[in-house]
Amino acid sequence: MTRFTPAELEAARDRLVPDVVADGLQVLFCGINPGLMTAATGHHFARPGNRFWPVLHLSGFTPRQLKPSEQDELLSYGLGITNVVARATARADELSAAEYREGGRLLAAKVERLRPRWLAVVGVTAYRAAFDDRKAVIGPQERTFGDTRVWALPNPSGLNAHWTAATMAEEYGRLREAAADRAP
């Protein structure tokens, strides 16, 4: 893994990271916003302590653990990645309530255009802020965007100590099973 100096990471602040998307995905995973490591590398969930890639594999979404640099392989599994807020910051608490709301509006339009089967927001707090749903809990949501259903997942950040990789993989696995179920 490339090591970045603090100055190089800081230079990545506010940088945009391209989505990994296609029409008609099975699941579109949605992070809060890119961290500085993600912005510096151009690869989603790139910080070494982030558990997204291990959990994706442990939950059965991918046959092996992908590296952030292999993110484009997700498309071959019917998976993609976007963010609620596009700009990179060191911490999610640097985002304003207005940025979350505007991000939610833009995300809704993106989902309606791309029509994934499921939108999986990785971070229930981000979901609550983006869609003004203070009572949302981890799991499937009542909200839909056209035919796209929504699931709030635990945030895979290493800072989220309430969830282990194993318990996150169980919840991500619940989504994987729901996404595989073709019943209406």
Automatic annotation (TrEMBL):
Keyword Protease tagged: no
Organism: Streptomyces liliiviolaceus
Coiled-coil features, chain-numbered ranges: none
Pfam hit, one: UDG
The Uracil-DNA glycosylase-like domain, residue ranges: 18-181
Top-level class of the enzyme under EC nomenclature: hydrolase
EC numbers: 3.2.2.28
Keywords: Activator, Chromatin regulator, DNA damage, DNA repair, Glycosidase, Hydrolase, Isopeptide bond, Transcription, Transcription regulation, Ubl conjugation
GO function term, MF aspect, one: pyrimidine-specific mismatch base pair DNA N-glycosylase activity
This protein's name: G/U mismatch-specific DNA glycosylase
GO biological process terms on file: base-excision repair, AP site formation; epigenetic regulation of gene expression
PANTHER family to which the protein is assigned, alphabetical: G/T AND G/U MISMATCH-SPECIFIC DNA GLYCOSYLASE, G_T MISMATCH-SPECIFIC THYMINE DNA GLYCOSYLASE
